[in-house]
Amino acid sequence: HFYFFISFFLLYLSLVQSLREYIKAEESKLAAVKSWANKLDALTRVSTSDPEGYLGHPVNAYKLMKRLNTEWTELESLVLQNPSDGFISNISTHRQYFPDEEDATGAAKALMRLQDTYQLDSEAFARGKLPGMHSSALLTVDDCFDMGKTAYNEADYYHAVLWMQQALKQLDAGEEAVVSKVDILDYLSYSVYQMGDLPRAVELTRRLLVIDSSHERAGGNLRYYENLLRKQLSELNQDYEPASEEPIQLGTYSRPKDHLPEREAYEALCRGEGLQMVRRSRLFCRYQDGNRNPHLLLKPIKEEDEWDSPNIVRYLDFLSNEEIEKIKELAKPKLARATVRDPKSGVLTTASYRVSKSAWLEGEEDPIIARVNQRIEDLTGLTVKTAELLQVANYGVGGQYEPHFDFSRKDEPDAFKRLGTGNRVATFLNYMSDVEAGGATVFPDFGAAIWPRKGTAVFWYNLFKSGEGDYRTRHAACPVLVGNKWVSNKWIHERGQEFRRPCGLTEVD
């Protein structure tokens, strides 16, 4: 019987130990939940006073995507360890509104797009050091690792290298992280190999194996890299040189070419570089009354020349603050991912080169829309009866529209066939917000950049008087770096303009 008691006692001790572990686990879980709550309280205090301003910072926008996509799921798993029906039910109810994996990936890609366009290294983002501002919006080691992993999963090894390198740098500086140095080196070494830097790939893999000598994939990779490197050196009749000890930064590797032929010129203009200023002496300002239009006689609109040929003008104080707020109010419930027309099929679809939300507003929806449409007609002298609806667009962090034409070219003759109003003869673009950084409208062909100024509007013709397209008007909306960009535009069509803008004597009049 003694042995029975011994067995019971041992079982008892085991149960007591299990109970202690259970209590410890519950306390740990509760502490973790309290930590979450404290962080969320701090975030709420910062963000609720100015949600648009807060989310206008690209790092805040990315971290919001990541937090809702990943971290809330982790919290859900934590709470599910013990029945918490009310909390889980609440999460389940709201889950349909959470961003999905595609949204989180899109937010990461937006940071990389900004990184490329504005030539910002990963540390600038990680430390909140954006042009003209310093912020407490910081990226942790794990954030940087997730950025690199997103790029890696897209086979974008260029950005994978930059972000894995930043994660490694912050980890080496003593920052705590969930991800291990082995994992970072694993991704980084392979990405460096994909960028063609064999010496550095060898060195990074060796560092990994010093930490974890049993890492099978790294061992196999190292042998492969070393053999490949020996073969290359032998073919080039060169001696082995150790990898550079300089950290990988922007410019260490060449950014891969993509589909856009004017990529460098376009992005330089977005940064305010490469602007052509020699024609400024020919530019003037004036009061515009629309050729003595009765609506504008008593209150003409201030007009400034932005460019002389093609002629681009800016109208000051075109929209009032009240009109802007009403247009945004009408548009917000309708906003959806902006689409582009496939030049071959003519079908509207989303595309990576146009990242924004848009909505279409009819003149009958509100007197303000009708009033804005009429003002455009009065000012330009062109009828808006055949124009498209007023399109409202919102460009969030990283939002852009790469170089494009507003008019249809000869290789896409049916682009506007269903409208029956001909081609887009002119573009009238309203700026409905200021933008803290980025977001310019640029024309790579002649090196002009037009910066958003709330309440102003710009206007240009897409077609010559002959009806031929003016290919110089290829333009782009630069990515928004900091802030929140609202615009609305009116695309004016050919039909109805026959006597308002008659043909010229030559093809390029």
From TrEMBL:
Pfam families: 2OG-FeII_Oxy_3, P4Ha_N, TPR_P4H. Its main location: endoplasmic reticulum. Residues 1-18 form the signal peptide. It comes from the Eukaryota. One of its GO terms (molecular function) is L-ascorbic acid binding. PROSITE patterns: FE2OG_OXY. The keyword Iron applies. Residues 386-494 form the Fe2OG dioxygenase domain. Keywords: Dioxygenase, Endoplasmic reticulum, Glycoprotein, Iron, Metal-binding, Oxidoreductase, Signal, TPR repeat, Vitamin C. Catalyzes the post-translational formation of 4-hydroxyproline in -Xaa-Pro-Gly- sequences in collagens and other proteins. Belongs to the P4HA family. This is procollagen-proline 4-dioxygenase. It comes from Takifugu rubripes (Japanese pufferfish).
